[in-house]
């Protein structure tokens, strides 16, 4: 959340544009690189604004997209650009046998410069407090997505990096509750939970969370929580993660542990823990204000990891390339009807 990921032009042109001399929308590697570059475009738009540049390098035009609109946060006087809406304008030279999305709505992460740092860090703190949904940028993001989703025949992809992934995650979850499951590319999304121990999410935390859920909530309340979780099971966001990135590595542990519990026949415990957090349960028990739908708790995902050097673990630029990226692994919600 609190890292700047702004590769130089040469980084991207060497690893991204030079490789994609012809765009093939059937190739998942191309789709990943394209969406990462559109997120990078939001970084470039904000950098250009801060430096009072009239224009910035329009990498999106190479992929036959045009900048349709900028999403700005006017709650602060700087009106920083936190997102962008791109519209597809096809040209004959590219391969469109699988249709490219009509719109890509992308969100940037934190920029460590004085013109946006304070505003971005306040949003990061909102994520830690599970209060991102109360911010104006979320309202604007959701409204932008709903506006485009209302256009007949339009396809929409969401994309984001770090803080921007949290915004895209929220918008994706909101749409999933209405039955619209948007393709979502989330690069290094923040996972806010109890700390790791030697790279492994402590299984005991899951056990305690499940036990507290049963203790604090009656069957009807647990069933309501289960039903809300099931609403999201058909939304499978694409998560791009790095084992050494403390911001997002929790997702790797989260899904691996859920899978392991299911394999050992204790999936019901995993599902209870996946729907709740210790922090949330304690706040609920003591009557403290709390939003029960924590951002990072999702039932399904397609996970891709990178083994790029540790010092670049949070960089957006690692997702332009193919050399360090693993094959995706699908984690699907178990529909088995188990009750506690």
UniProtKB/TrEMBL annotation:
Cited Gene3D superfamilies: alpha/beta hydrolase (3.40.50.1820)
The keyword Oxidoreductase appears for this protein: no
Keywords on record: Membrane, Transmembrane, Transmembrane helix
Top-level taxonomy: Eukaryota, Viridiplantae, Streptophyta, Embryophyta, Tracheophyta
Gene Ontology terms describing biological process: lipid metabolic process
InterPro entries: AB_hydrolase_fold, Fungal_lipase-type
Source organism, top-level taxon: Eukaryota
Species the sequence originates in: Papaver atlanticum
Pfam families: Lipase_3
Span of domain Fungal lipase-type: 137-182
Name the UniProt record assigns to this protein: Fungal lipase-type domain-containing protein
Transmembrane segments: 199-216
